[in-house]
Automatic annotation (TrEMBL):
Annotated ranges, domain Isochorismatase-like: 8-203
E.C. code: 3.5.1.19
UniProt keyword Hydrolase present: yes
UniProt source species: Thermohalobaculum xanthum
Pfam families: Isochorismatase
Family: Belongs to the isochorismatase family.
Descriptive protein name: Nicotinamidase
Amino acid sequence: MDQFPADTALIVIDVQVDFCPGGALAVEDGSAVVPLINPLMDRFSTVVLTQDWHPAGHHSFAAAHPAKAPFEMVEMPYGPQVLWPEHCVQGTPGAAFHPDLRTDPAQLVIRKGFRHRIDSYSAFFENDRRTVTGLRGYLSERGVRSLVLVGLATDYCVRHSAVDAARLGFQVTVAEDACRAIDLGGSLAEAHAEMAESGVRVVPSFAL
């Protein structure tokens, strides 16, 4: 397969144990993305991994809200927030990358969601939409103008990363078969609509 130009980066979103079958917040068939992502890495000169990295008792966990259950909605100072099962707690086995995911080709790991009271879906911003992760600066310094996104989950962290990247001026492609979705209350259809409106290209990995 052809190499991508040096100004195109691969962003691998949250391919972690807790998001794969058997994990605390498992995405159906989530581990199936790994065999597609691993060979893709060799086609890019810039590869970035993101990692959900919550402190224990994170405010987005349902357990932090008495009488609330996982997947209920609450209002945070920054807006609506899904309450999640405890997942990807810092230093736990569930927060680790999937054991079969190649990590050695990555030049950077962006950890997100480590601020106790702010959740983080996007690789670029926390959910308050103001607190940056530093990824934009890193990519800009390396001359990156186009991104290919893969990983978990299509309708949350991939979606928000893709939309933010497009808003920041990157050309963005999502390799849909190298992603899997949660699809909570129609969230997958919403994700497709928002990505299309933002100019994000969604294609199968063989069409890259």
